[in-house]
Design a protein that fits this description.
Number of strands: 0
Distance between the termini: 76 Å
Helix content: over 70%
Largest sheet: none
Mean pLDDT: 79
Order of helices and strands: HHHHHHHHHHHH
Structural class: mainly alpha
Number of helices: 12
């Protein structure tokens, strides 16, 4: 951050007012980052005290995000809504060429300070409270886009990219909050909204913005290619996540259960449950076969114990012994064979 500050301020080093403004921006970034980290860590810690991955406490994590995204969208829209470079699909006059003019809008720098602080805090929290690998990719790519576009004076299009992300995240965070709060009506409403808003903002609008970068970017083909590739990674991730959202909605409609597959705690638990069920079936089949052979006098007690140890393991053998105690007839036959 120190190096980036020097690089960022170098062109304005002789301009005291501009230098002071950049100091103010980095101060704003640092204060916002500290506030977000402190609040998020407290909320995450409180929610994770309950070991149940479906705990209602997790509603506070997503309500925290809803509040931030509402603020970010309102603040960003209050600035960009009057700009002549706003695209038509966002309600503007669609002067796309003005998106990449060399003039810098000072008011957009504050949006960038907020955006960089939020995504930096997201990355740090992801390291503390483990997230799925694709989330790490998204965090890193987003931070790279923010920093590189700022240094390359492409913050107009960068601001719009932040806006379409934040707008869709309002609905996604809301539906997750409704799921953990077990608010069925709101869960249904926000599920419908997120299935509409996610492809609208994160696929359609972001793809259009990427096309604008490809067609109109003024700072050289190498940089244009870099930004296009980074944006394409985000689009691919959004399509993948939308397919997961569709599966979650389908599962909810068909079974009445909504599971957040992006939550690593839930994903790990579901995987563990599936593995546990599979192991139980295999153990049950092996024990049934051993008991049948004992009853038919085709297996000695010593061989039965050895087979149990091999197939089920010591812990499973103890479970089988406990089950045998509850079944007097089977216990008698096994005891007779052991004698």
């Amino acid at each position: 951050l120190t190096l980036l500050t020097v690089v960022h301020c170098q062109p304005f080093i002789t301009d005291h007012e501009t230098l002071e403004f950049n100091k103010m921006l980095w101060g704003l970034f640092a204060l916002t980052l500290a506030g977000l980290l402190g609040t998020r860590y407290a909320v995450e810690t409180y929610a994770r005290k309950d070991k149940d991955p479906h705990s209602p406490r997790k509603v506070w994590i997503h309500l925290y995000k809803v509040v931030w995204f509402l603020f970010a969208c309102y603040y960003t829209w209050s600035i960009v809504s009057v700009k002549d470079w706003l695209p038509s699909y966002l309600g503007g006059p669609h002067n796309i060429k003005n998106l990449f003019l060399p003039e810098r809008d000072p008011e957009l720098d504050t949006i960038y300070a907020f955006g960089l602080a939020f995504h930096t805090h997201n990355s740090i929290i992801s390291l503390i409270f483990r997230e799925n690998f694709e989330m790490y990719i998204h965090h890193v790519v987003t931070i790279l886009l923010i920093i590189l576009s700022d240094l390359d004076n492409a913050i107009r299009v960068g601001t719009l990219i932040l806006l379409v992300h934040d707008a869709s995240d309002i609905f996604l965070a809301s539906v997750k909050a409704a799921v953990y709060a077990k608010a069925d009506i709101w869960r249904t409403i926000f599920s419908v909204l997120v299935m509409i808003m996610w492809p609208l903002f994160r696929i359609y609008m972001l793809t259009n913005l990427t096309i604008h970068v490809t067609e109109t970017y003024r700072n050289g083909p190498e940089r244009c290619l870099l930004f296009t590739n980074l944006l394409s990674i985000l689009i691919y991730l959004h399509i993948y996540w939308y397919s997961l959202l569709a599966r979650i909605i389908y599962r909810f409609v068909s079974t009445g259960k909504a599971v957040d597959t992006s939550d690593k705690d839930i994903s790990d638990k579901d995987q563990s449950d599936k593995q546990g069920k599979s192991d139980k079936k295999a153990i049950s089949a092996a024990v049934s076969d051993i008991v049948s052979q004992l009853e038919e006098n085709t297996l000695s007690a010593k061989d039965a114990v050895a087979k149990l140890q091999k197939v089920c393991g010591k812990k499973a053998q103890q479970s089988v012994a406990a089950a045998a105690e509850a079944d007097g007839e089977t216990e008698g036959k096994v005891a007779g064979k052991q004698d």
